[in-house]
Amino acid sequence: MTTFPITGLPRSGLAPNVLVVGDPGRATLVAEHLDNAKPIDARREYHSFGGTYAGTDVVVISHGVGSAGAGVCFSEILMAGATKIIRAGTCGGLQDSVSDGDLVVATGAVRADGYSQGVVPPEYPAVADPGLTHALLSAAGSPHYGIVLTSDVFYPSQVLGSNLELWQSANCIAVEMECAALFVAASLAGARAGAILTVDGNPLAKADEAMEGYNPDRTVVKDAINQMIETALKALTA
Predict the structure, then answer these.
(1) What's the chain's Rg over C-alpha atoms?
(2) Among 1, 112, 127, 194, who pairs with 132 as Cys (CB 3.0-4.6 Å)?
(3) Whole-prediction pTM value?
(4) So which residues are the catalytic ones?
């Protein structure tokens, strides 16, 4: 069986339903929610498992941090035969009503990432699949939903500073680093993509300025991540 060079995924026979996560440790956590879970490969930041959920074949793979490496992962997933992809990740809230431990369903993403700029013109939108978005909203209960900001910058520089207040005023509900890349890659391949995110902080809050107060390992976040994983799997296999 031949495999792709970066992710190690098989070039044929991949389950069409794929859950993508940033952290390899979270991929292992997702595998614990699957029946008959078995590792597929583990190289670089790309750790993958196959299994079933509610009787449906599912693959989970980690894509790391940022759009460039994630874009490679998404490309190989799509070339391997994925037709439905959900990203389950973390984000920073941008609105006062979006608090730690809340869930966010992304309906679209601002393309402030490098990957999508390299594959489509600036006017091309990054939008989630309506059907998957509806499935996520139904499975999640009462999450926040709306446009998220996809940015390649985690730690702002002193040279340019941060533009998060601009996107807050534009009513973006959260900031993360990979949704735009996923939505664009899936759209180009004729596949369906959605995203659900757990809020692990607010970069505009006074306590989180310069990231000193950022702590994603709190219980409220970990509990929400488990809820997010179950929600994503239900929507993916609905």
Answers:
(1) 17
(2) 194
(3) 0.95
(4) 200
